[in-house]
Design brief:
- By secondary structure, this protein is mostly helical.
């Protein structure tokens, strides 16, 4: 089937040329960050400490582990859900249904990992495989995106995303042509959005904590803080999983390389950089400063959760009593935007909360001259 006529939606990311550049730059940036985090100077700017060869990146065991992880999370996705929610109305006036069992998947994964570790699973060896695992995840994202593109070629026009239907192969491969690619009731974009990447991030953090305990006798306070803060973030995302159904990723963006790579590779391997850094660069941290950092994270989380809850409630039902009295403005597309409540104080309060929490995650990695305890061995 020939692709439909190009979309009139404005091209993003600099069009086909920008999309082609990002296909290369995103994986290169990820591997640069992974190499820098474990290097002595750990300098972000400048060349990486060395260029790994294919023998260091490619591992069939890493690919098998990556696919096994995806299979496990897919199996947990298919388990009976505590709730089934309807998504936003589509072009054909229908609504898709989604299982709300992400938090259940997190808990069951924790139980399975706990049982595995007690039975001798060498989880602490996982950090030594981060480079080949990242390579396997990147390869998986490329192949998966190609399959998604081919699937979209036979999808009806009503199933295509507004922006990923330009007619340019590279651009549409990057952005994604189909809005909600599914096989039966299994929604690929919704599955990848929160499950394998976010839960994988927590697992990598835990493995780094366990390896630090083996190397130094016990995990550092800084490592505990990073693990705790980021576990809270992931647990929150999965507890409020239904809120993702009103995000732009779900209601607007197609599912192509941009989201597939972001979900499967970028999230677990770059969001765990703080814990990776601490394993190779242990940092002293006293309880007074740790308490201050906890306060910063709590403030960020309060803003983040309050703003996102308000936004999600408004998008689901603007007449909800919790948001009905908030002021709004109309856009050229007929949508209404909040300009009061959290959105009356700052333009993007949800991003502000994210940034404050990210600051709290990073402060344990180096508080410079304010650190008061001796450096652990």
């Amino acid at each position: 089937m020939a692709p439909p006529q190009g979309s009139r939606a404005p091209l993003e990311f600099g069009g086909p040329l920008g999309a082609a550049a990002l296909l290369l730059l995103l994986p290169v940036t990820m591997f640069h960050l992974l190499l820098v985090a474990r290097s002595g100077p750990a300098r972000l700017l400048g060349p990486p400490p060395y260029l790994p060869g294919l023998e260091e990146l490619w591992s069939p065991w890493a690919l098998l582990l990556c696919l096994t992880w995806l299979g496990l999370q897919a199996a947990l996705y298919l388990l009976p859900a505590r709730k089934v929610a309807e998504g936003q109305e589509l072009k054909d006036k229908s609504r898709l249904r989604y299982p709300i069992n992400g938090f259940q998947a997190l808990v069951l994964t924790a139980l399975l990992v706990g049982l595995g570790v007690s039975a001798g699973l060498p989880l602490s060896e996982l950090p030594e495989m981060l480079l080949p695992l990242a390579f396997a995840a990147t390869l998986t994202a490329f192949i998966f995106s190609l399959l998604l593109y081919l699937k979209a070629l036979v999808a009806p026009a009503s199933a295509l995303a507004p922006g990923g239907n330009s007619g340019n192969l590279i651009y549409d491969f990057f952005l994604g042509r189909e809005l909600n690619p599914r096989i039966c009731s299994f929604d690929f974009k919704y599955f990848c959005e929160l499950r394998p990447g976010l839960i994988g991030w927590v697992l990598i953090n835990l493995a780094l904590l366990m390896q630090e305990a083996e190397l130094r006798g016990s995990p550092s306070l800084a490592m505990w803080l990073v693990n705790g803060f980021q576990l809270l973030y992931v647990g929150d995302a999965l507890w409020y999983e239904e809120a993702v159904l009103t995000t732009m990723d779900i209601i607007h963006d197609g599912f192509g390389f941009m989201l597939a790579f972001g979900d499967l590779a970028w999230v677990p391997f770059t969001y765990s950089l703080q814990a990776q850094f601490l394993l190779y660069h242990p940092q002293p941290l006293g309880w007074p400063l740790a308490s201050f950092i906890c306060l910063i994270n709590a403030v960020g989380y309060y803003i983040f959760r309050g703003a996102n809850s308000q936004k999600n409630t408004f998008r689901k039902n603007p007449s909800d009593p919790r948001v009905a009295d908030l002021e709004t403005i109309s856009t050229a597309t007929g949508r209404r935007l909040l300009v009061s409540g959290w959105w009356g104080m700052v333009r993007h309060p949800n991003y502000l909360g994210d940034l404050i929490m990210a600051l709290a995650w990073s402060l344990p990695c180096d508080f410079g001259p304010f650190s008061t305890e001796p450096m652990p061995p």
